Amino acid sequence: MAKAVKLLSVVGARPQFVKIAPLAHAVERRVKDGSLPIDHVIVHTGQHYDPSMSDIFFAELELPDAQFNLGVGSGRHGSQTGLMLGELERVLLETAPDLVVVYGDTNSTLAGALAAVKLHIPVAHVEAGLRSFNRRMPEEVNRIVADHVCDLLLAPTPTAIENLVIEGLAERSVFTGDIMYDAVLFYRQLALRQSQVRTRLRLEPYEYGVVTVHRAENTDDTSRLRSLLDAFNALADAGLPLIFPVHPRTTQRIRSELADWSPHPRLRLIDPLGYLDMLWLVDHATVLLTDSGGLQKEAFFLGCPCVTLRDETEWIETVQAGGNVLAGADALKILAVVDQSKRRSAGSPADFTRAINASFGNGDAANRTLDALLGFAGRETPAKVDPLRIRTAPADTRSSNKRQLREVPL
Q: Catalytic pick from 214, 247, 264, 284?
């Protein structure tokens, strides 16, 4: 019997649990059909340690238990990443994987990539090539460093491939499509059958909006956070009920810095939700207001108009297709954009299927990702970048992307 290839995945935050799920299930299918023995080790750094941000995702996504939970917890970026590095080094020396896989753009991504590289273990980056061109974002620094130290770069969109080509990383790059699209296609049906969030919150489809805020640029800037909260209250006062699952970081900041603020009766602050409940909620919302990169995409895949509470986005395809508008933290702009988005949605989801397929693939990213991983490990023929899916990049991608996004009309 052929020797099993050992893959070790490093995850630590809820978006990464969503990304790893389709790949973990693809590994299980490949092992069951007997084509190749694969040993898939999952390491949970503990970056998200609250049960509502971690345990429920493993259960709902039917993920195998993590063989290692490092229990790192929260902390400042440097200390948190440093703790992860030390623990991951120990795990990697103990397990000796053939290939380490990191996902997205969190501190867990950075720590996993650095720990593997320093031990001369090959490492692959799922969701490589994303750029916001804003290095004040911790996520931007994490993804840039990960891309430049990783051996295999798995890009979700042609735009991501363009960014990697411009940075001289073409030889390491493979277009796979977006693995989160796989997750939405599969778990959407499960959410329709299993989620009880409609009953619990007494919701009527397309008669409410959804709000999420968690990024440091919004939560750590008190004036910016107050502007967002005031905008949400204004929307609620204008008659739009809003469901606001509050991230623990945001809860802490409101309590410590904005104790005088109180929500409008139609702005319902609730605890964080599991993946299936959140998927149902966005699927049936009239509009989503968020600073989450993953939710921007999920809204697009589900046909829900999105208002992004940032000044830039990594997912320019959603803006170009008309499914997403950047509003920053400007309360007046948020109100105007939401009014337009509500009119556009007209009580039913939009259909962005053609734009999705053109940019994010056809929902088989997990298999393409696994093929690329096994190919890199020398066990199967790797997936190839399809040159027809790669557009010619502009001479100055940074200025072109920003100019293009800022010209989106209200």
A: 214
DSSP labels, 301-314 = HHT--EEESSS--S
Of the pLDDT bands very low, low, confident and very high (cuts 50, 70, 90), residue 401 is very low
Active site residue 125: no
Percent of the chain beyond pLDDT 70? Answer: 88
User: Of how many residues is the chain composed?
Assistant: 410
Say which residue the tokens 């830039």 belong to: 312
Domains and CATH numbers, the chain: 5-177+363-406 (3.40.50.2000), 197-354 (3.40.50.2000)
Write the burial class of residue 218 (CB in 10 Å: 0-12 exposed, 13-18 middle, 19+ buried).
buried
Burial 10-22 (b: 16+ CB within 10 A, else e): bbbbbbbbbbbbb
What is the pLDDT at residue 1? 57
pLDDT confidence tier of residue 58, bands split at 50, 70 and 90: confident
Note whether 142 and 119 are within 8 A (CB).
no
- Note the pLDDT of residue 226: 97
Burial 253-290 (b: 16+ CB within 10 A, else e): bbeebeeeeebbebbbbeebbbbbbbbbbbbbbbbbbb
Extract the tokens encoding 310.
């940032």
Q: d(Cα 251, Cα 50) in Å, to the nearest integer?
A: 13
Instruction: Tell me the pLDDT tens digit for each residue of 61-115.
Output: 989 889 999 988 777 888 889 999 999 999 999 999 999 999 999 999 999 999 9
Nearest to 15 by CA among 358, 278, 347: 278
